[in-house]
What we know:
Mean pLDDT: 89
Low-confidence stretches: none
Shape: elongated
Largest sheet: 6 strands, mixed
Oligomer: single chain
Amino acid sequence: MDKVGLSFDRMRTFVRVAERGNLSMVARELDVGQSTVTRHLNKLEEAVGVPLLSRTTRRVTLTEEGSRYYTNCLQILRLVEQAAEEARDARQAPAGGVRLSCTAALGVMHVTRMIFEFQDRHPDIRVDLNLTDERIDLVREAVDVALRLGPLADSAMKLHAIGESQRLLVGAPAYLSARGRPQRPADLSRYETVVMSNVAGSNQLLLSAPDGTSLMIPVSGRLRVDHGLAAREALAAGRGIGPTHLWLVHDLLDDGRLEIVLGDYRPSPVPVSLLIVPERAAIARVRLLVDFLAAEVAKLPGIRPS
Length: 306
């Protein structure tokens, strides 16, 4: 293997091409000619000794060997970047960028405002906020930290548990007056329910009773949404009853636009966690953002700290 050919510049070029799937796009991003990108890739493949990319007239895709090499390149390049950043952090105030992924509704309603305050305290730190309800691959998407709602599968990421998000059943006063307020959980099956289409098992409502027992109530509704903010609007508009996080609707409850339904029966709380790419956890600016978000999210309405 020609180790001279394994330069960091060529590895970075390869990573960008693997992610973009287009040579000309990467050339524009790197502000070089497409011939330079092609040369970097050719030299890298010569050095490694196997084809890393499959090229067509329209798209560039990874070979099986290229996919494994891509994952290793990401780890190597992040370690190189981390070493340089930790050296700089020891001599000066934290600076640079942090990529944060966050569930969309929580990000819009609360986390964006938190980032404003964080950057007022640390003006040299850039934050790239990605709002999505998808469980993205942090390493592949070059994300440093993810704020997640819900149970987590086994992961190689570093976990910082924040607490649990309390949920409750709510409905608009006009809807409840017109239909009558449910008196017991079994009544819920006769009401329209605003259903979250991207939540598994949303056609059944699991409630905890005051005595600690659990009840499973079948529910249905004519409106299905895949975003928390859309569910918030539907509930406020009187389109039905629905389970929701307190932090999502606390203001609507305060001003009377929503009411709690069957307050003694609650949907199960949802874990709230921060996931950190292990290689990034020791970087000062990443550590600062993680500590700040953990403290601020724990203060939100309905968040019960771990």
